[in-house]
Amino acid sequence: MRTEEEATEAEIVLRAAAPEDAPAVAALVESAYRGESSRAGWTTEADLLDGRRTDAAAVLKIIEDPGSRVLLVERDGAPVACCQLERRDDAAYFGMFAVRPTLQGGGVGRAVLAAAEHEARTRWGSREMHMHVISVRAELIAWYERRGYRPTGERVAFPYDNERFGVPRRSDLEFVVLSKPLLHSPEARPPAQAQAQPAT
Length: 200
What we know:
This protein is α+β, with helices and mostly antiparallel strands. About 25% of the residues lie in helices and about 30% in strands. Helix 1 (about 20-35) crosses helix 2. Pfam families: Acetyltransf_1 (PF00583).
């Protein structure tokens, strides 16, 4: 029998999150980035930021925005991974990416990212995917670079005056902008199991 840590891309099935999923999605994001539970994975920001990463109201607003999508992976009825896509002209923005800490490093995140790229290409015709990553997260930036993302040279100031994004524990935080072309080719398609399914 497979353990959670042995999850592979072939097991991943995504669907679009519905409004009633907002509290569970917010809890998943919190568990991956904030507090002691996040230290079970490698995406934790617990040493960089205190406070909340998001809440149910903010997630619901994204879900209900016609220009955005929240993609969700469930196992046994509980969310184990999610991400946000936002349409921005001929590009898409990728954010709110979270994988349950005990599943990180097992291929789930890679499959979710591939499915999100496919969704942006096929649903909106997006030519590029953009994202913001905290500049001191060198390991995370390297993970994205191995998947074809490159720094654009653009940097975005961290919103120190807005606790909605967390309470910084250091004074040198900023975002780097990463970008990847989304190629319209058969080779760019993820496995069928990783393609997003509509909300039911």
